[in-house]
Amino acid sequence: MKSKQGFTLIELLVVIAIIGILAGLVIISMSGSQNAAKNARIQSDLDQLRTTAEIFKLTNGNGSYCSGTGCTVAITATTSVANTAHFLDATFGDGQRLFADISGQGGAPVMYVTATDYCVQASLNGTTSKWCIDSLGNNGSASTSCTVSHGTCN
């Protein structure tokens, strides 16, 4: 008698099918990870932006979040923030880069700055939620959109 060695074609096809099903399950389970990573980066950038704002206030001669008179500013992802008189000023530090990175991650940031307060809000990917920081120390999901007349997250 001659002994058979190896696998039959049916056995190989079954193994390939099982590997294909497992690979498909892994891809499906990883699809939300990209949005979660972008959202974590948006939240981290907002936290760093808060630090930038507080450093600006401490080092700015008049102890405010912007310099000059009548410095109420509304900024969106499409607004040019170069040469402005607040903590997103490119000559001050990394605020402008952080704001641009939030926009690059799909956050569509909106910021309102006055001499006494600020509010920065960004959309989170894959949800309808927005993440917000403000000069009062609020940090989290906002129930109210921040505006110039409402410079806080809640």
Question: What features would you highlight for this structure?
Answer:
40% helix; 154 residues; five-stranded antiparallel beta sheet; alpha+beta; 2 helices
3D architecture notes:
This protein is an alpha+beta fold. It is built from 2 helices and 5 strands. A 5-stranded antiparallel sheet has the order 1-2-3-4-5, with helices on one face. Strand 3 (118-123) and strand 4 form a beta hairpin. Helix 1 packs antiparallel against helix 2. The model has no long low-confidence stretch (mean pLDDT 81).
Oligomeric grouping of the chains: single chain
How many strand elements? 5
How do the strands line up in the largest sheet?
1-2-3-4-5
Overall SS class: alpha+beta
- Helix and strand string, N-terminal first? HEHEEEE
Query: What's the main sheet like?
Result: 5 strands, antiparallel
Average predicted local confidence, pLDDT:
81
Tally of contiguous helical segments: 2
Whole-angstrom Rg: 25 Å
Helix content: 25-40%
Straight-line distance between termini: 83 Å
Beta fraction of the residues? Answer: 5-15%
Globally, the shape reads rod-shaped
**Which residues form runs of ≥5 with pLDDT under 50?**
none
Could you give the topology of this structure?
Layout (H helix, E strand, L loop, with lengths): L8 H51 L13 E4 L18 H10 L5 E4 L4 E6 L6 E5 L4 E3 L13
Antiparallel strand pairs: 1-2, 2-3, 3-4, 4-5
Helix pairs in contact: 1-2
